[in-house]
Amino acid sequence: MHEIISLETVLKELHNISGFRISVHDMYYKEIASYPKELTKFCGMMQYDERVYKNCVENDRTAFEKVKKDQHPYIYRCQFGLYEAVAPLYYSGILSGYLMMGQALDTSIHTKEQVYRLSSRHVSNQACLKEAIENIPASTKEKISSCINIMSICAEYITLSNRFKASTKNLAQDVKKYIQENYAEKITLETLCNQFYCSKTNLTYTFKETYGETISQFIISTRLEKAEKLLAVSDMKIGEIASQCGFADQNYFCKVFSKAFGETPTAYRQNT
Question: What is the CATH number of domain 7-160?
Fold first, then answer.
């Protein structure tokens, strides 16, 4: 059986082939994974202008909504004439996010001049702008079309291999199970977002909506539950129990334990 390629590897390889930035977005259109991580220098410069940023967000939203409606890849050009494309991602047959490729400059003779004309009024340093435009990945329209076709194939692979789990109805349940199995490790919102390919907004809202408590509250309560059992059945030192249950600091462990149980870990052990 062939090894299933990770989502991160798919993004990296697709970037290596195309030269374009590849990103994954959840159902709320939030970017949750990308390669490379940084925006192109041109896009970074442009988005310093709040009006440009709002237009970028609105253009992308329109593309995502079209893909959601039509359920097939969509190619479009941004406000500065750069090519972008979006393809749908599914998990267990449910639309769960989007794969995006951009931004690409075609090699037509006047394309760079057009991009400069449309963007120059938004930047004071024209020399830096021209340099940024020169660094935008450029290809023929035929290559751009081929790269987008490959992106569509990658989106189908991600779908068929169930590599993408964002925004599914089981997200909160999967996160809860992960915490229960990995409570002894360092767990942050970033850890969970990387694990389940979802945005912090989606993750925190979905979990709180499902279980009525925040992720941080659930992590602490899970660790305290494990610590309570160890205090009752083992002779381990307080510091060892704290460490084994995922508390990096013994003093903090004693503080939250006392708040939860009304007595210190030592007193709890003596009274059990």
Answer: 3.30.450.20
Evaluate the omega torsion of the peptide bond into residue 36 and state whether it is cis, within 30 degrees of 0.
Answer: yes
Residue type, 85: A
76: tokens are: 């479009």
User: Does an H or E element contain 91, and which?
Assistant: strand 83-91
- Asked if residue 103 has a cis previous peptide bond (ω within 30° of 0), the answer is yes
CATH of domain 171-271: 1.10.10.60
The tens digit of pLDDT for each residue in 63-97 reads: 999 998 998 889 999 999 999 999 988 776 677 78
Say if strands 138-139 and 94-106 run parallel, antiparallel, or are unpaired. parallel
Label residue 239 left, alpha or beta by phi (over 0 means left) and psi (-120 to 50 means alpha): alpha
Query: What are 141's two structure tokens?
Result: 């329209």
Q: What pTM did the predictor assign?
A: 0.63
Beta bridge partners of 94: 91
> Is the torsion defined by CA of 114, 115, 116, 121 positive or negative?
positive
Torsions phi, psi for 40 (to 5 deg): -65, 155
Do domains 7-160 and 171-271 share one topology? The answer is: no
